[in-house]
Write a structure and sequence with these properties.
The relative contact order is 0.13. This protein has helices at about 1-10, 55-65, 95-100, 115, 125-135, 140-150, 160, 170-185, 200-220, 230-235, 255-260, 265-270, 275-285, 315-320, and strands at about 15-25, 25-40, 45-50, 70-80, 85-90, 105-110, 190-195, 220-225, 240-245, 245-250, 325-330, 330-335. It is built from 14 helices and twelve strands. The chain has two domains: about 5-105 and about 185-335, 3-Layer(aba) Sandwich (Rossmann fold); about 115-185. The radius of gyration is 21 Å and the shape is globular. The chain is of the alpha/beta class and about 350 residues long. Bound molecules: iron/sulfur cluster.
Length: about 350
């Protein structure tokens, strides 16, 4: 127990005031705006929000994998404690050092594995490549480790799959291969960007169960990016809700579902079919699914006030002119002008 507490005191990854700005000819577009969070050893932190809220861009900024066909400016800090206990700022590392960390101590899996796997190489070659690069072992040992990784993710007929190409596998199997590739060098942090969105519900459940088991077995931390609050409820310990490139609420998962403190989080939860069903049954009505009126703001034209103001039922005059400040504590906090009563 003491050991767990000690681990929980020092975050493995401390992100502070992360900003990612797209540089265009006619101006700068701030897409990630002052994101801060801690990820502790063995913890799953979910980054939640609508499409375009900056979740994936946050992850890509941390991994230094932003699209090369655009110009970016990143700011803030991302302090990572590596396996030897050394700390480094991921945003300041030189490219060679970052390449050594990426795929080894920090790994990422993506939503659509077909776009990330090389169609010209066998599954075994792709997994083994990472092992050879990071562990410096020979071909035979790397292939053996690739086989172990495929067995770890419970791919049927793993030895046969080693010599197959991505197009020969189903969507669920390809996602398992992606997880095997990410896990093969035993990372400390796994960033999972909507890893089950492209899969049907049954396979989705299997992949999520697999990730939970791998986390229990290895003690890795997971930064889980999703728009699916049902997944968050079952798989995360802590949640950061993002809107328009900012974190607007952060808390433990139970507190977020029991007492959502930000109007946007409340609106998101109200959209859940389960909640609508509970309310309609209680009130004897037909179930009516809710949505959040309005659109997310244009990131080219953000004003000085709260980004959620146009869609917020609790909007006040102050909300249009002044950015909300954080209220609350480490356990539960939100950015809003409304009086905070935890
Ligand atoms: Fe709504 Fe104002 Fe709070 Fe923004 S700051 S979420 S507009 S009440």
């Amino acid at each position: 127990m003491n050991c767990v507490n000690a681990m929980m005191t020092t975050p493995l990854l401390q992100v502070r005031d992360l900003t990612t700005t797209l540089v265009q000819r006619d101006g700068m577009v701030p897409l990630v705006r002052g994101v801060s969070f801690d990820l502790h050893a063995g913890q799953t932190l979910a980054l939640v929000g609508e499409s375009g809220s900056g979740k994936s861009l946050t992850a890509l900024s941390l991994m230094r994998l932003l699209a090369r066909n655009a110009q970016w400016q990143c700011g803030g800090q991302a302090i990572f404690t590596d396996a030897s206990g050394q700390t480094c700022d991921l945003l300041q590392l030189d490219n060679a050092h970052m390449r050594r960390l990426r795929g080894h101590q920090l790994a990422m899996i993506f939503q659509e594995p077909m776009t990330c796997l090389n169609p010209l190489l066998t599954v075994g070659e792709q997994i083994a490549e990472s092992v050879r690069l990071h562990w410096g072992v020979n071909k035979v040992a790397a292939r053996q480790r690739a086989l172990q990784a495929l067995e770890q993710v419970e791919i049927p007929a793993a030895r046969q799959r080693l010599d197959e190409y991505p197009h020969q596998l189903s969507g669920g199997m390809r996602q398992r291969v992606m997880i095997a590739m990410a896990m093969v060098c035993e990372p400390k942090v796994l960033i999972a960007d909507e890893p089950t969105t492209a899969l049907d519900v049954t396979i989705q459940a299997q992949i999520l169960a697999l990730m939970s088991r791998l986390q229990r077995d290895t003690g890795m931390s997971i930064l889980f990016i999703t728009h699916n609050l049902g997944v968050v409820a079952h798989h995360a310990e802590r949640v950061a809700v993002m809107y328009a490139g900012q974190v607007v609420e952060q808390s433990g998962v139970h507190a977020l579902f029991a007492q959502p403190a930000h109007p946007y989080t409340r609106s998101l939860l109200a959209c859940l079919p389960g909640r609508a069903r509970q309310l309609s049954l209680r009130e004897g009505h037909r179930m009516v699914l809710q949505d959040i009126p309005g659109q997310a703001p244009n990131m080219n034209r953000l004003g000085s006030g709260c980004s959620f103001a146009e869609r917020c039922a609790s909007r006040m005059a102050l909300c249009d002119v002044q950015a909300p400040v954080w209220q609350g504590d480490d356990a539960h906090a939100r950015a809003c002008h409304l009086e905070y009563r935890p």
